[in-house]
């Protein structure tokens, strides 16, 4: 195989709220391609829309990418040779390119007020005009000439002069030959002096040496504008990889408004492990490394990575698959590591307090890990280990057999003397209750479980007794006995 040229990729989110899961999806493929080719993965913050900025959003982007193991090699606060990596800090960079485009006749000033543009759009809609978009009223006019006409605004924008032969076809590494619609005379510099996305993305991708532009398929229709800018500015074109849009199980586009899982922070809040989320994203629109083997490390994903394996139809965002993966990764952690993750999870939620003994949790976590889906599933199942006594639930009390008092008395007698490890406890109780007294295991151990945990269903009984210790175990059984 020929050596791959080191790729430079980037993810370019706008800090307009808490990060979208799509940002992580793009970042995963960006990072994989950079890793596959020995290149670099860049984070660029696209904050040119000053009205939509949300404080803290950039920080959340950094944190959530790092959490997933997808931290960039270059970016704001990280450094790199192509900074600054925030577009708001690059305003002076864009200006000469705008001037060059105007001087070369590829761009022009437009003083049309937003009222005029709104009216124009409405007229085009009512008349069902074949020609839509800007009508070039300002093209070729000086400021003075334009000021004589209605709908004039003092501060102009700059628009692209899109020629009739604008390139509409391009090659996409996922989709092959793609045809996009003919573009409008796109604004590239806004009245506030900030560039629009279209200009900034081309200038920055070029100056940052980006070789492969990985982004959502919603940007396909913008690509002809970008190709024109590349051509006019004399920049070599990058490779394009337009990723499929993630979809809800009903095939609608995944959005933060309709699906909580569209928020990247949601996964951490819910108690998913980052390795499970990363593995889940690897399977969206991308085949498993081997048929039927869905669990794969990032390194395994990278080793076989190829753009032509990416699906072009929107992958379904199926949280059930994620739940399964999360359970798998939970069970692959050792008890100490799983305990740390559970403690961190509850600490982040402000739910960790002195009532929970970490060592007890560490001992008990293997009893419940088999049935855990989320990190938050352990504590509720183990709550009875962290309280002085237990309150017996109504259904648990109702489940007690008629001879519960007799069972408890015999059980208590055994537990007073038996060595207090799970195995001896089980052997001792079984010998007395099941073998000697002839009680069916269900009725022999049921009352003990209710006394110990307050519930009909609990983690394994004998191990729970061992963890609670002899004194506490006896105290609980006696407490229940006293109520019968
Ligand atoms: N700022 C754009 C976004 O958030 C980036 C698109 C691109 O990657 O070119 O979708």
What would your notes on this structure say?
The mean pLDDT is 96. A hairpin with a 3-residue loop joins strand 5 (169-172) and strand 6. The strands form four sheets. Strands 3-4-7 form a three-stranded antiparallel sheet. It has helices at 21-37, 57-67, 91-103, 114-126, 143-147, 197-207, 223-233, 264-270, 274-282, 298-303, 319-331, 335-348, 358-368, 378-382, 394-398, 404-417, 422-436, 441-453, 461-468, 470-482; strands spanning 8-11, 40-43, 107-112, 152-160, 169-172, 176-179, 187-189, 212-216, 239-243. It has four domains: 8-85 and 247-309, Rossmann fold, CATH 3.40.50; 87-243, HUPs (Rossmann fold, 3-Layer(aba) Sandwich), CATH 3.40.50.620; 333-375, no CATH class; 394-482, Arc Repressor Mutant, subunit A. The radius of gyration is 32 Å and the shape is elongated. It contains 20 helices and nine strands. With 484 residues, it is mostly helical. Bound molecules: glutamic acid. Glutamic acid (GLU) binds next to helix 6.
């Amino acid at each position: 195989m020929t050596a791959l040229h080191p790729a430079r990729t980037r993810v370019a989110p706008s800090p307009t709220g808490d990060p979208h899961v799509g940002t992580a999806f793009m970042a995963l493929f960006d990072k994989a391609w950079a890793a596959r080719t020995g290149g670099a993965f860049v984070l660029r913050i696209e904050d040119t829309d000053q009205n939509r900025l949300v404080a803290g959003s950039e920080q959340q982007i950094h944190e959530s990418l790092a959490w997933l193991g997808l931290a960039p090699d270059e970016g704001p606060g990280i450094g790199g040779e192509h900074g600054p990596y925030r577009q708001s800090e690059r305003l002076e960079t864009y200006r000469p390119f705008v001037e060059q485009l105007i001087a070369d006749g590829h761009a022009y000033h437009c003083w049309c007020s937003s009222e005029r543009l709104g009216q124009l759009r409405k007229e085009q809609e009512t008349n069902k005009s074949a020609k839509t978009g800007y009508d070039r009223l300002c093209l070729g006019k000086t400021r003075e000439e334009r000021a004589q006409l209605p709908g004039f605004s003092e501060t102009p924008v700059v628009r692209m002069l899109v020629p009739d032969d604008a390139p509409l076809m391009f090659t996409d590494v996922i989709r092959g030959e793609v045809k996009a619609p003919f573009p409008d005379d796109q604004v590239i510099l806004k009245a506030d002096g900030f560039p629009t996305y279209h200009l900034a993305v081309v200038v920055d991708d070029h100056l940052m040496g980006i070789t492969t532009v990985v982004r959502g398929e919603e940007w396909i229709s913008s690509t002809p504008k970008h190709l024109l800018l590349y051509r006019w500015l004399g920049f070599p074109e990058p490779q394009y990889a337009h990723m499929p849009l993630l979809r809800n199980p009903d095939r609608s586009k995944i959005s933060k408004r309709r699906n909580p899982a569209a928020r990247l922070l949601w996964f951490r809040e819910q108690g998913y492990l980052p390795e499970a989320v990363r593995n889940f994203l690897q399977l969206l629109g991308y085949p498993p490394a081997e048929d039927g083997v869905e669990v794969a490390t990032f390194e395994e994903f990278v080793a076989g990575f190829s753009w032509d394996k990416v699906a072009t139809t929107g992958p379904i965002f199926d949280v059930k698959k994620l739940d399964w993966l999360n359970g798998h990764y939970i069970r692959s952690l050792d008890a100490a590591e799983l305990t740390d993750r559970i403690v961190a999870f509850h600490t982040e939620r402000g739910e960790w307090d002195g009532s929970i003994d970490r060592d007890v949790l560490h001992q008990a976590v293997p009893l419940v890990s088999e049935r855990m889906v989320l990190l938050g599933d352990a504590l509720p199942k183990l709550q009875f280990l962290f309280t002085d006594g237990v309150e017996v639930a109504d259904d648990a009390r109702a489940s007690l057999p008629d001879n519960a008092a007799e069972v408890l008395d015999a059980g208590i007698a055994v537990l007073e003397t038996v060595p207090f490890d799970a195995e001896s406890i089980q052997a001792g109780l079984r010998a007395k209750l099941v073998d000697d007294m002839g009680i069916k295991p269900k009725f022999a151990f049921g009352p003990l479980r209710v006394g110990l945990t307050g519930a009909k269903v609990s983690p394994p009984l004998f191990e729970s007794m061992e963890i609670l210790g002899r004194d506490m175990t006896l105290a609980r059984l006696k407490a229940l006995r006293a109520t019968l």
